[in-house]
Amino acid sequence: MLRFLTAGESHGKGLVGIIEGMPSGVQINEDYINYHLSRRMKGYGRGGRMAIEADTAEILSGVRGGYTLGSPISYIIRNRDNSNWQDIMAAGPEASTEQRVVKRPRPGHADLPGAIKYEHDDMRNILERASARETAARVAAGAFFRKLLDTFDIYIYSQVIALGEISCTPVTVTRENLAQFLDRMEESQVRCADKGAESQMVKLIDSAKEAGESLGGCFEIGVLGVPPGLGSHVSWDRKLDADLAGLLMSIPAIKALEIGDGFKNSQMPGSKVHDEIRYNETNGMFRVTNHAGGTEGGISNGETVWARAYMKPIPTLYKPLVSVNTSTWQEEKADIERSDICAVPAAAVVGEAMMAFGMARAFLNKFSGDSVRQIKQNYSEYINYMEKVWKWGKT
Ligand code: EPS
Fold first, then answer.
1. Atom of ligand 1 at shortest distance to CA of 316?
2. How many Å is the Cα radius of gyration of the chain?
3. How crowded is the C-beta side of 146, counted as CA atoms within 13 Å?
4. What distance in Å separates the CA atoms of residue 263 and residue 259, rounded to the nearest whole number?
5. Which atom of ligand 1 is closest in space to residue 253's alpha carbon?
6. Which of 42, 339, 341, 349 to mutate to test the pocket of ligand 1 (most atoms within 8 A of CB)?
């Protein structure tokens, strides 16, 4: 079973990750991981922290000579900003816990429920871990998962399709336009394909900043090249769509999720929603539309798997909302902790990592093996079956 864990406080020494269950023989290097870490740091509207950090992962175990060994993989991403916080964040009794105390919880943040649950007077003990800084460790893990998927010609992409009230028409990504699309995403300041919408989004972020506001939005994540048969209809806890929804919802500030055209589909008659199954000699079986988002009955159906995640505005407001000072029980404005105005583009990169994890896990469940070679063998047998029996993959 593929699994991973992260640890680390936002201003502590660093973030670490452990991945267990990766097969041997996946080609990977630190540069590839760092490339994805640098993508997460980008996006118009990020706060001051990104100017301090230059996120890089150091692999500690599980990789040798450029290939995974099959043993647990571990890595560390050091927090440069820790040099400014060493006294405050120290693990020993010498830590100066009287500095940078947080007593006025931010509405919408984990500050208050976390403090209640873990019995902390100082809400810094909550926010340090609740910070989206943790997602850097997820993106590093995601680099391993997508390398595994790459081996089987499965590719992940994302695009921001709404930011605050500005939205755009998403690009339909295919194998043919993938390379060009990915280039465009990297040059966009907000990971949005539509240049007109992009400049409106940038303006909106500028005015939010001036007003002491923050902004949410929506991003789409897609996976190309997914074979039919991942996930299962037989039990609730094996459904691929449910699994992916949970993984994407675990990203900080994601509050709604749809698989395919989920929201729109709920308002339309069935004849306009379901994707007709077609056949011709050249293509075998195929679909013309993909409103379902590539899953039917909790099983991948061979179409692009895609989902949309909706992010609430970040809870730190530079013009704060009313809160309560938990030392005096007086109503006061919430604390201000340095933050981003908008992190939707960065969240999209984190979404890719979580999607990569869900797809890699589902893929390994079906084509299991301890080495890439064994998995390739199982996979090619399945592809043969798909082609022979179901006339699949002719396109
Ligand atoms: C983040 C690091 C954090 C925040 C942000 C994301 O660093 P700092 O708290 O030192 O500024 O910029 O986290 C949040 C928006 C949040 O709500 O915690 C990062 O590395 O992505």
1. 17
2. 22
3. 25
4. 9
5. 17
6. 339
The set of protein residues with a Cβ atom below 6 angstroms from ligand 1 is: 10, 47, 49, 81, 131-133, 136, 314, 316, 337-340, 343
Ligand 1 centroid from CA 49, angstroms? 7
Q: To which residue do tokens 């998962």 refer?
A: 145
H/E stretch holding 264 = helix 262-265
Expressed in angstroms and rounded, the spacing between residue 120 Cα and the centre of ligand 1 is 21
- CA-nearest residue for atom 20, ligand 1, is 133
Concatenating the DSSP letter of every residue in 309-354 gives EEEPPPS--SSPPEEEETTTTEEEEPP-----SB-HHHHHHHHHHH
- Tell me the pLDDT of the chain (395 aa) as tens digits: 999 999 999 999 999 999 999 999 999 999 999 999 999 999 999 999 999 999 999 999 999 999 999 999 999 999 999 999 999 999 999 999 999 999 999 999 999 999 999 999 999 999 999 999 999 999 999 999 999 999 999 999 999 999 999 999 999 999 999 999 999 999 999 999 999 999 999 999 999 999 999 999 999 999 999 999 999 999 999 999 999 999 999 999 999 999 999 999 999 999 999 999 999 888 888 999 999 999 999 999 999 999 999 999 999 999 999 999 999 999 999 999 899 999 999 999 999 999 999 999 999 999 999 999 999 999 999 999 999 999 886 44
Show Cβ contacts of residue 187 under 8 Å, excluding neighbours closer than 6 positions.
none
Are the beta carbons of 33 and 165 closer than 8 angstroms? no
> 145: which 2 tokens?
């998962």
Apex CA 291: angle with CA 288 and CA 293, to 5°?
105
Q: What is the C-alpha to C-alpha distance for residues 13 and 332, in angstroms, rounded to an integer? A: 32
For ligand 1, atom 21, name the residue with the nearest CA: 133
Nearest CA to ligand 1 atom 1: 133
- Its pTM stands at 0.97
Residue pair 316/131 in contact (Cβ under 8 Å)? The answer is no
